[in-house]
Amino acid sequence: MLSPLGPSGPGYAEAVVEVLVASPLLALFLTAALGTLAGAIPFGPLRFGAAGALFVGLAIGALDPRLGEGLELVQAIGLALFVYTVGLASGASFFRDLRKQAPLMLGAVVLLVAFAALVAVGARWLGIDAGLAAGLFAGALTSTPALAAATDAAGGAAEPAVGYSIAYPIGVAVTMAIVTVLARRRLPARRDPDPADPEAITTITVVVDRPRRVDEIPGIASLPGRDTGEVRVSYLMRDGEVSVASPNEALRADDRVLLVGAPGALDRAEAVLGRRVSRNLAHDRSVVDFRRFIVSNPDVAGRTVAELLIPLRFDGLLTRIQRGDRDLLATAESTLQLGDRVLVVVPRERMAEVARFFGDSEQRVTEVDFFSMGLGIALGVAVGLVAVPLGGMTIALGAAAGPLLVGLVLGHAQRTGPLVWNLPHSANLTIRQLGLVLFLAAVGLASGEAFARTAFTTTGLVIAGLAAVLLAATLLLVWWLGRLLGLSGPRTAGAIAGFVGQPVILGHVDSLVDNERTGAGYAALFALGIIVKIVLVQALVAL
Length: 543
What we know:
19 helices, 543 residues
């Protein structure tokens, strides 16, 4: 029965709270829904995204401490889904860039350790609780897995979540301000020259005046054992007959070939082969045709283009891979994933065979293999249980770093025998977002009362100020490190986004600088940073 005070009266509010307490599932998903709405609200160029669930959860959880009870399993499930899918998606680039960007990665580890040490010293000097200090560290670096590790290390106490929620918006705002100022600044970039212009992949037709083998063309992307290259040769017209060019074809004088690649690379290949003509061989699809096929066959996923033997199987050629919003030139060592859309040039009569080979089913790529996914997460949780004595404390990877580390390894491996570890790109993003929102909503509900007691007090202001000062100083050191290592401004700006670990900041950098090196810098530090932060935050709680 409604209170005499009406829907806006205290009696009505108490009744709503009691309903939420009686139905934790209702409270959780109401928080997730309102948090998603709040996360979409723009603050200038900034949106909090999934973190909106944390802030809404804190507000709702402050109404009654009972709203956060019994959500530990939800937190654990959400976190495991999030970090495991992050690991799967980052595994290939993490290990690929390990050697090339090792100095940057090592320097970032040193700076993370220095940042943790400064937080510990500042917290002790200012009288901040160890749990709050650990949350400050995780929040300033926007690391949700580090928050989970801090909460576990603190025995489930709310202080890490309180420190995190205060420092998180400070971390995002300070980082965005710094990259806005620095992203367009030029650095010497002695060891990081400009790549080819990031223009869309296109095609040209060239008449061969200087015969040579296809694998002798500069920048060719079809050499087995090499995951590099900027040009592919697809169509071949010889003596008036059109066919698919073999990767080891010997080109003759007066042959016409269709080259696929970035414009700059095509210009270089044209200069070596002959001269460009206006007629595009791809316009004649009467004998040789091309089409995009969806990779939905698990037997194909996790294998390289060279392993598929498309020229031998179908007299065809796989030239491009569309993954998410990116259209990539296929190299011999490019590894296919479920959900990829591959462009194959093949004789018209063999189209049906190629479709069956790749699967080409939209429905099948929406079906997640929960056996491999469940097994992978179980392995990650098991690895996280291993505790290592370190001095006077014990460090464990926990439910955050364990699944992340296993996800990185499995994402790099792609498949083991019949098991395909990687998820379709769209499924990975969906599961990742679901896990993150569930985790943050549950954490917010459980920490709301403690946040309300602390956030707007002198302690809360001190945490915010300390986070802003220490983070700004550390990010300037990351910029200095990039300059010292001879990296470019775009790569260093991306590295700053990866150091903090916030995709929103990477998106902001990309809006300022249109350069592929920003993503490479981000990928180099993102996954590594999560692991290091998880270890360091446990040390902060133990101090």
